[in-house]
Amino acid sequence: MILTAKSSNTDKLTFNDLGKAILGVAPDALHRELALDAGDVAYLRDTSGVLFSAQKGDIRRYVNAGLLDINHTEAVANNGTVVFAHNFYAIPNVVVLDSTGKALILGTDYEVTHNAALTQTTVKNISGGALNLIINIG
């Protein structure tokens, strides 16, 4: 999931519910220590803790308060690309939606590639026209 702290923030956004212990599993220190200043971007794997936070926790609270954007929305010209440097070191899940109708974009309309180290994902518009996309990397 892409978290972007809005540039209008005046305080650091902290996330106390990411990586909470589930069934006795210790929380991930990286997620416990995540804090975003205005304009900061963080890429998180779509784990149960992150998804819970997005639905009912700190992420949802910041989105509802207008302090945080999740996912990535962008107009992409035909043959244009959007590059995400996420440092997951694994192939992430990629979901692409049309931002106007909030519908899935056909797999024939875009192409997803990853670098050899699996730290960067590129989404390319191959639809033949411009697209307004919502992209989730997680």
Structural summary, described in words:
The protein has 138 residues and is of the alpha+beta class. 14% of the residues lie in helices and 34% in strands. It has a three-stranded antiparallel sheet with strand order 4-1-5. It has a three-stranded antiparallel sheet with strand order 6-11-8, with no helix packed on it. A hairpin with a 5-residue loop joins strand 9 and strand 10 (120-125). Helix 2 packs parallel to helix 3 (58-64). It starts with a strand and ends with a strand.
What are the main properties of this structure?
3-stranded antiparallel β-sheet; 138 residues
Secondary structure topology:
Blueprint: E1 2-5, E2 13-14, H1 29-32, E3 35-36, E4 41-43, H2 48-56, H3 58-64, E5 68-70, E6 72-76, E7 81-85, E8 94-98, E9 110-114, E10 120-125, E11 131-137
Antiparallel strand pairs: 1-4, 1-5, 2-3, 6-11, 7-10, 8-11, 9-10
Helix pairs in contact: 2-3
